[in-house]
Amino acid sequence: MSQKPSKNGFPHFMLKEICEQPDAVRRVLRDWKDSAGHIRLPGTPFSAEEVKSFSKITIAASGSSRHAGLVGEFMLEQMTKLAVEVDFASQYCYRNPVVAAHELTIFLSQSGTTIDTITALQVARRKGVKSLAICNVPETPLTQNADATLLTHAGEEVAIAATKSFTTQLVTLFLLSVYFAELRATHQSSTDRAMRELPHLPEHMETALKTDQACREFAQQLYRHKDFMYLGRDIDYPIALEGALKLKEISYIHAEGCPTGELKHGPTALVSEEVPLVVLATRDENDESSMVRYEKSVSNIREFVEREIPVLAIVTEGDRQVRKLTSCTISVPSIPGLLLPIIEVIPLQFLAYHIAVLCGRDVDRPRHLSKSVVVE
Fold first, then answer.
1. Engineering a disulfide at 61: which of 23, 26, 65, 174 sits with its beta carbon 3.0 to 4.6 angstroms away?
2. What pLDDT shows up at residue 356?
3. Which residues touch 296 (CB under 8 Å, ≥6 apart)?
4. Rounded to two decimals, what is the model's pTM?
């Protein structure tokens, strides 16, 4: 008989699982290292020749897993120079996707039992493309029917809202991108910098966990609002989507994730003193394009503050420009841009959690939701 999960003194499983993320990532890193400490693909599901022959990658997933896939799109395209497309698993089932030889389709799922993702896998198999399941649970319909499987080693996730299963998916996608890049000889200096920092990622995540108190304080200021907007550029945009989803699903407060640069193309009409903005404004000082995006975000935040719109900014340690504009900032460690999504999502998880608690919600079991969607 299986042992009943324990909260280990935490008030909710979700908070416990947020705090378990550094150890979960350590398990992923151990699984991907050989005896010499080099990165290898666990189980070697694809030969080097197959990886070199891939002409395109499609990622199909739902919910938080799809947001992880969107981050993976940036990682894979930047590192492997392959075209990557991300689809809703539920849409992939219906649109009769056009596929060609030498394509790979990746299916992301925490449970491996989500009906949309399983159906999408069946469609891909009928079309003859190679399939890779990235899943937290072994021996599921998804892992049993895919050509290959990578496990994320998050451990049991009791709360319905994905936290550690999400960050371990991000780490797995990063490692997969590195491995493919090495075989395809598309390695770049940005990848090398991220790889040098990778062994320290769990420690950086532990530092990000120290934002808990600040997130609780900002939640007390914000939880009475009925609408939120989350903004992020480039690889941070999927994290804005994930932050908005976390708030929606456990607090029942409406929230939207939007690319920061798209705000003026319509959504800014919604912005007012009653709609707080949560802005991802981190930066990688060693990446010129990251700094360009950061300066644009600083300009946006300046405009929001001048219009007296509430702004909570997620910034990199040592930031001065944003702090001059708003006192509502939360700092995360300064690490390479390819790894930033893995740590900057942590304060967004905390923020959603504390707002939901203040709203009196059942954080671990939100209404109308289940851990796995088994019926469409």
1. 65
2. 98
3. 233, 260, 261
4. 0.95
C-alpha distances (whole Å) from 63 to each of 57, 85, 215, 243 are 19, 16, 23, 12
Q: Are 108 and 134 in contact (CB under 8 A)?
A: yes
Q: Are 280 and 344 in contact (CB under 8 A)?
A: yes
Residues of the chain with CATH 3.40.50.10490: 13-187, 206-358
CATH of domain 13-187: 3.40.50.10490
Query: Which residue carries 């925490």 as its tokens?
Result: 110
Q: Assign 3-class secondary structure to 54-71.
A: CCEEEEEECHHHHHHHHH
Beta carbons of 350 and 216 less than 8 angstroms apart: yes
Question: 10-residue block means of pLDDT along the chain (376 residues)?
Answer: 80 97 96 80 82 95 96 96 95 85 93 90 91 94 93 94 97 96 85 92 98 97 96 97 98 96 84 92 94 96 93 96 94 97 98 98 89 57
C-alpha torsion 14→333→65→369, nearest 10: 20
CATH 3.40.50.10490 fits 206-358, yes or no: yes
Provide the pLDDT for residue 1.
Answer: 46
